[in-house]
Design a protein that fits this description.
The protein is of the alpha+beta class. It is built from 22 helices and 20 strands. This is Penicillin-binding protein.
Amino acid sequence: MTPRPKGSSTEASSPWKQRLLTITKWGSITGLVMVLILAGLFFIAYRSIDIPSANADFTTETTHVYYSDGKNELGAFAIQKRDPIDLEDMPETLKDAVVAAEDQSFWTNEGIDPKGILRAAFSNASGGVTQGASTITQQYVKVLYLTQERSWKRKVKEAILSLKVENQLTKDDVLEGYLNTIYFGRGAYGVQAAAQAYFEVDAKDLNLKQSAVLAALLNDPNDLDPANGKAAKQALKGRYQYVIGEMIEMDEVDNGEGERAYKRLPDFPPVDTEDAYEGQTGHVLQMVKKELLRLGFTEQEINGGGLEVTTTFTEKAMDAALEGMREARPPGFGYQALHAAVATVEPGTGAVRGIFAGQDYLLSQLNWAVSGGQAGSTFKPFALAAGIKDGFSLKDTFDGNSPYYTDDGNPWENQGNYSYGPVSLIQATEDSINTAYIDLTVSMDGGPEKIIDTAIDMGIPPAEPAKEPWGFPTSSPALVPQTGVALGSQTVSPINMANAYATIANGGVAAEPYIIEKVVDRNGEERYDHKVQDHRALTEDIAADVGYAMQQVVASGSGAEALSGFAWPAAGKTGTATNDDGDVTSAWFSGFTAQYATAVMYVRGDGTGQLKDWLPYYFGGKFPAQTWRAVMDRVMEGEEPIEFPPPAYVDGEAPEEGHEPYTPPPPPPTTNQTREPNRPSRTNEPTTEPSTEPTTPTQQPTTQPTPPPPTTPPTTPPTNEPTPPSTPPGQQGTRTPRNRRSGRRAGRR
């Protein structure tokens, strides 16, 4: 054979081959050593970790909910419902359904499922559907022996204990323990309690469809509970069909029977509500539970985790809401027909101190303090704040005549089509003059958007929940930019309204409302401690001006009759709302002292029923204002009167000319003083029963000029404060024609 020349490719590659072989050899040795070390560590851990006693207080972990003092109990979430039964008393359909849903390798695995772990890790890492990898044995071990801590240490301990349990117990023992321990929702631990909670039958009598439902619920007991609404029931159906499908795939059920069961969920009997939820307690506890879930606590922790929850609610404010409502609501109108809602919020913190949600929770679970209704003219203060921010002043005048036509030709009216002439923003607020507020809205560039932005900044949630949501609820349906936005066709809850008004009481600093102060777990560890979330929404001067105009509502405007003699300085706003058919759908009074802001709302039926000609008086200055007074007399008991700051009369560069303060012409010279005739009342929402006789006008604030009387007053003065229809695109509210002034200016001279 001819020898290869020196420097051939074979010789050149030999050092690389040698190096690769060396790396492979040492890599294999290192890997083997690591495996041996890990195996040794696992063996040591396996020998050193004993199966502990079951969690000592696992069967008695009641979650307690307290008033703000942290001592007096407001209520409690369900004590664990548990009634262990033997595996032989559980139907085969239930066992098969749970295995199909939770751990299909249960009968063959050793307590852990390496393939399942790898499959879940791959799915989670690749951005697919988040999957768990726990076997039935691991779930049983975690619930019975461990905590809910999420750490590698706990997972390793869980795996070791699972192997030990598998070695010491039979598969039947593990499954029996699991099915008597795992949480199914509704406070039910174990299949017997779950069968009773969902179907009012014993576990041994569960059929295929009922068994599949209970197996499906294990995936997410709260969000899949069919009692939680249509969305939850639809989600349950999807999981239920998955369970049935897997049972068919595993040959645990006959194809025909499985396909019949697959089509629809079983029937569910009505949910029994415990007496502990009667009155207003159930409404408050449901608010607390929903908020705990939002804060990251699980359904199992809430119902059986032994939490100690301190809320913001006070016994004084809760009792005041209940007793004040009872005192002032019209007699003879049942709670199922007429709904009164009350909410009291603390300025500066956003703490919700008291609510009245409506009728007894056992009779209706609808919380009107959260559901709310059309805001009506209680929304005008946000337009006032927006106008002052945009450059207008309290003393600037706007068109109070009716009708009032906007540039698009749409007419807007005051109640009774009453004309006031040019009015200041003080009088426009005091008498709730719709046309003046429409004039203010269209006199700003992008007026509707600015009003909404200001309202949101002051605490009214947007039409859709924000990226970081706040409020109860977190949205205000129909809060969209349109000409009549100041007249209040959008839906706002009393809690959110009271909180936004609290911004004015707090000098323009808005705080997010909240109901949970602190949460401590069963081990005494503080799991949550609220921090006030606030920001400046208005300058102090603008807040003072808005508050001053609202004080005139109480002193001499549409809220004066009900609040006459109230012992503390107060400010507020009346409101009623009408729908497209002209039906009055809500009546409001919202107001504040320096210490508390309270909103009161009255609605009928489903929240859209007609109040006019049904109640003896339907305007905000009557029953809502009287209720506010009765509630606040109790809330404010023992509080010192605190005066509001004087008006600052902020005067910026107005976006449109023609709104300068009105200066009446000098009177003609005369030797005999002429007595001015009486004029109709200027209030757009009266506080007394409508009259056909004109009345003497209320005294104008000394800081604002008095407009001359209308040249053609109506024969009947205004009788209430109307607000816009509910849903017309572009316009809403009671409509008044507009005499738009031409020309815009950069500022006031």
